[in-house]
Each structure stands twice: as C-alpha cells, then as structure tokens.
Amino acid sequence: MAEVVHVVAIDSESNAVLESIKSIGYPIHKAYIAYRKKEALNAVENVNRALSSLVESKTLNFEGKKVYEIVWELLRIIRKEIEMENTVLFNVSDSDRSLCLALTIAAQISNSKIYIGSENGARFLQTPPLKKFNGDRIRILKVLVDEGGSVDSINKLIELVDGKIEEQKKYMAQRARMSYHLNELEEDGLVITERKGKHLKIAVTDLGKAYVVMFG
Fold it and tell me: Which residue from 47, 52, 57, 208 has the least number of CB within 10 angstroms?
C-alpha cells in the first residue's frame, strides 16, 4: 500500500513544524527529520518524539554537508520511496538557508511537492515543472560520474557510452549526436566543457550528478 512520506527540515521551531504537518491536509506514514546544526537537536528530538509514537520516523544529520551533498543524499532516499510508489512531501517551514535550498532542489528534481507553514495554515509552494531528459543524456551523465566526474575528450565519451565505433560514417553521425546532447546538457548546467588543445574536456556538475542519483 502506497504511503505518504514527509521530509521535514528542522532548525529551532518544533511546534511550528508539527502544526504545519497537521494543517497541510495530507496523511503522514513516514517521516525523515533533517537538520544541519547541533543547536537544532532539541527541536529535532521534540519532533521525533511526537512523530515516532505514531509513524516511522528517521533522523538525517547533515552537519557540515554542502548543499549538493545534502541533495544527493536526499535523492537516494527519495528515489527508493518513489520506486515503492510512495508520495514524498518536503516541509521547509523551519529550515535554515542551506537546507531550504537542498530540499527545494531535491523536490524539483524528484517532481515532489514542497510546503511551508504560515499563520493561515500550511500551503504548497509552486515550483517550475520538471524538465525530462531522454535516456541518452542520463546515460552520458552517468558515464561521467562513473569516470570520476570527467573525461578528456569527446572521443573517449563516445567510446564509453556506445563502445568503439570502427565505421567512419557511423562514428561521424554519433559524434554529431553527442555534440548536440552535450550542448543541451551544458545549456542546462549539467555539464561543463573546456577546450584543451585539440580535445574537449567534459565534466559533470553537481546538479548533473543529482540527476544521476535520481534517474541514473
């Protein structure tokens, strides 16, 4: 049976967070309670105590983590929940700036809803629709991640993605297709390229890696 999973950011206001969970109008079957600062531990414990008696509750400690490190870890969790056909909601009612950014990015990439508490009750935030990437582009990003983040030439990338192509006509067609995909990926901020002599170095960005975590 599908469940509703809340990813809840905590900084200091445990009562406000609990009130926002109650007022959003969705059930809660599981909660991930995320925090970044030691000062948040009292509030985290209060929320965990209130929720764990009713639902499954897990704590996520992101102390010392950068924004995209948080995003990657969140997406690994979210991907498993979505694969189980669960609905994931993000609560940023009480998040610091870095957690708010991380949860917003993770919600955007996973096409999940994000909500925030207010004086008139919790409300969902509108976010732009998720841009969908075809399998070829996700595969390119995954190869770059598997290679440690970058390759030194487009020829090497073609070989890693499609194997060695001996026939010149097929190779030229694949090179044109790869160049097209790389231009689109770079425009979307998922890869960066740098000319090194005759070769083009291609590297995946932190955002590109986030797409691999979610879809690769």
Answer: 52
Q: Hey, what domains does the chain have and what are their CATH numbers?
A: 4-124 (3.40.50.10770), 135-215 (1.10.10.10)
Residue 177 vs residues 162, 171, 192: alpha-carbon distances, Å:
12, 10, 17
Closest CA to 190 of 135, 138, 116: 138
Q: How many CA atoms lie within 13 A of 181 on its CB side?
A: 20
29-75 residue pLDDT tens: 999 999 999 999 999 999 999 999 899 999 999 999 999 999 999 99
Residue 148: both structure tokens together: 């440690």
Which H or E run contains 183? helix 168-187
The 3-state DSSP class for residue 14 equals helix
String of DSSP letters for 96-126? -HHHHHHHHHHHHHHT-EEEE--TT--EEPP
Say if residues 115 and 90 touch (Cβ distance below 8 Å): yes
Stated pTM of the model: 0.90
Measuring CA to CA, which residue among 67, 79, 5 is closest to residue 36? 67
What are residue 116's DSSP bridge partners?
Answer: 123
Tokens read off for 45: 């414990």
How distant is the alpha carbon of residue 85 from its chain centre? 17
